[in-house]
Design goal:
By secondary structure, this protein is α+β, with helices and mostly antiparallel strands. It has 5 domains: about 90 residues, DNA Primase, Chain A; about 120 residues, DNA primase DNAg catalytic core, N-terminal domain (Alpha-Beta Complex); about 110 residues, Dna Topoisomerase Vi A Subunit, Chain: A, domain 2; about 70 residues, no CATH class; about 130 residues, no CATH class. Helices cover about 55% and strands about 10% of the residues. The strands form 4 sheets. It has a 5-stranded antiparallel beta sheet with strand order 1-2-3-4-5, with helices on both faces. Strands 13-12-14-15-16 form a 5-stranded mixed beta sheet, sandwiched between helices. Helix 11 links the parallel strand 12 and strand 13.
Length: about 575
């Protein structure tokens, strides 16, 4: 395993890997981009080719190519290893999972089960006939590893048992259920669609009942497990992600058959929610690759409310949402089976979500007064979530035209009054991968600036200034206790400070370093004097209240001295640094 890691690192640079996911721009010696792990408008995500790592000032995400792929693709280390090995053209050594490696045992169990279900399907006429009647080819059935399990209580259990898997492992993988003394298969009498992670490993299953008995659910999905997070897994994402990146938009459909027919017909940038409610986790997964999504909408869909909820979440995440209206009586799979060009036309004719809503309501309601009431209730919440004020203004004007409201401000006033449920206020909690917990060295503080200077000096073997001399100056200004806390925090996050400093300054020469150091020391001195001045002013007020005139006069003299020192610092800063800062 370790030799594979080294081979991958030799062949793939951090800028190659991160650059294959994000658009990187030069920033001095480093590269920058908008962070994929939290919502932001200004780039705060920096990549250092020299150090082979990345760092985000906004959310604290940091690491190397392996941690980046783990977070971006939502996989574990082994999953990231597989993805990067494929990119690098490195053949991974075969390794057997350790007996105590519980997660790897689950992956192995699910793989063995998938092979078993695939072989079952090839022996059964009815499920194969159903799949082909729905339009799937032999190649699609094989490529997507579709399987079948007979309507028997323990066929999966018995097979896995014969392969050495324990009951506890099957429970943890979500493939069996136990009630009292009885253990039985979760999936029975169903066509089975394996669900894959980004690395292509089976992590769960979705089973469609073959003979509807009127009692059982049409579709049955695996429960949440340690390898399957249903709120962050989209069916087909592993095969769609490259096409989404290539075409810069994704197509979102509802079920497995819709997804499979889309991919088979060449619409390979399609992903499916697979019967689970669409979450911010699902949408953030595709937003990382492309901000644009086309959502298919079936007017006969009983889950229209769920669809509308997903539209809200997508807009709250700042995504550009278009709606592809499927003709009545069809779903994407049926439409493609009839004629794939029909589905292609539906995608071509997709419209912005707000236009779709306005078109739908205005076609149903002709009375202008009722139309405005409906728009205010059903459309304004979506417009409220738009990030662009220009877009908001466009739709306010369009609504005024539709409803014959002459004064736009009436619509703007109602727009300002819109209340959004807390679950849709997700724009600032966009799957952040970490937090930076720094108090003394808080971002933007003078202390952190000095920490940058010390870190740069130390990382360059003290070529810029005498470190001890600089530390003593900082200590004199801070005081011993504060400096000791500062020094402890500095040592704790030294590597992060070096990376941040390199990213912040780009390249730095000795002259620039000295000027920055002197400027920060003056700022620190200024802060110290301002704190002293505040304390003296409080003491003077107290002395005046106590009618201690001598003490008040003495304090006032000290305040005047501090004011002069502050003025001197201000003049020195203006003289030396105005042209620089």
């Amino acid at each position: 395993m370790s030799s594979s890691v080294e081979k991958i690192k030799e062949r793939l640079s951090v800028e190659d890997v991160v650059g294959s996911y994000l658009k990187l721009e030069k920033a001095g010696n480093n590269l920058k981009a908008r962070c994929p792990f939290h919502n932001e408008k200004t780039p705060s995500f920096f990549v250092s080719p020299e150090r082979g790592s990345y760092y985000c000032f906004g959310c604290g995400a940091k690491g190397d190519i392996f941690s980046f792929v783990q977070e971006f693709e939502s996989v574990d280390f082994v999953g990231a290893l597989k993805i990067l090995a494929e990119k690098a053209g490195v053949e991974l050594e075969k390794f057997a999972p350790k007996i105590d490696d519980k997660r790897e045992r689950i992956y192995l169990l699910l793989e063995v089960m998938t092979n078993f279900l695939q072989s079952n399907l090839l022996k059964e006429e009815l499920p194969l006939e159903y799949l082909k009647k729905r339009g799937l080819t032999d190649k699609t059935i094989k490529d997507w590893r579709i399987g079948y399990v007979r309507d028997e209580w323990r066929s999966i259990y018995d097979h896995l048992k014969s392969k050495g898997f324990k009951d506890e492992e099957m429970e943890r993988a979500g493939v069996i259920k136990t009630e009292g003394q009885n253990t039985y298969d979760r999936f029975r009498g169903r066509i089975i669609f394996p669900i894959f992670d980004s690395a292509g490993r089976v992590i769960a299953f979705s089973g469609r009942i073959l003979h509807d008995d009127g009692k059982s659910a049409k579709y049955l999905n695996s429960p949440q497990t340690e390898v399957f997070d249903k709120s962050k897994t989209l069916y087909g994402y592993n095969n769609a992600k490259q096409s989404i990146r290539k075409f810069d938009f994704s197509v979102l459909v509802e079920g497995q058959m819709d997804l499979l027919m889309c991919h088979q017909a060449g619409f390979t940038n399609t992903v499916a929610s697979s019967g689970t409610a669409l979450t911010a986790g699902h949408l953030s997964l595709i937003k990382r690759i492309s901000n644009k999504v086309i959502m298919s909408f079936d007017s006969d869909n009983a889950g229209a409310k769920a669809a509308e909820r997903s539209w809200m979440i997508a807009l709250a995440l700042g995504m550009e949402v278009k709606i592809a209206a499927i003709p009545k009586g069809f779903d994407p799979a049926d439409l493609i089976l009839k004629d794939k060009e029909l589905f292609k036309d539906v995608l071509k004719n997709s419209v912005h979500l707000i236009d779709f809503l306005l078109n739908r309501i205005s076609s149903e309601i002709k009375d202008e007064r009722k139309l405005w009431t409906a728009i205010r209730t059903l459309v304004l919440p979506y417009i409220y979530l738009l990030e662009s004020n220009t877009e908001k203004s466009h739709y306010v004007s369009k609504i005024a035209e539709l409803t014959k409201i002459k004064e736009d401000f009436v619509i703007w006033d109602d727009l300002k009054k819109v209340k959004i449920d807390e679950e849709y206020k997700v724009a600032d909690r966009f799957e952040s991968v970490g937090e930076v917990k720094i108090d003394l060295l808080r971002k933007g503080s003078v202390e952190r600036g000095l920490a940058y200077i010390l870190a740069l000096n130390e990382s360059s073997s003290g070529k810029f200034t005498n470190a001890d001399e600089l530390k003593n100056k900082i200590k004199d200004l801070m005081g011993e206790e504060s400096y000791n806390n500062f020094d402890a925090e500095f040592k704790k996050i030294y590597n992060d400070l070096v990376f941040e400093a390199e990213s912040y300054y780009g390249g730095i020469d000795e002259e620039k370093f000295i000027k920055e150091k002197d400027h920060l020391l003056l700022n620190l001195q200024e802060e110290k004097l301002k704190k002293e001045l505040t304390l003296h002013m409080i003491e003077m007020k107290k002395a005046e209240n106590e009618k201690d005139n001598d003490k008040a006069t003495s304090i006032l003299k000290r305040c005047n001295d501090i004011a002069k020192l502050l003025n001197n610092i201000k003049n020195e800063k203006n003289k030396k640094f105005n042209k620089i800062y």
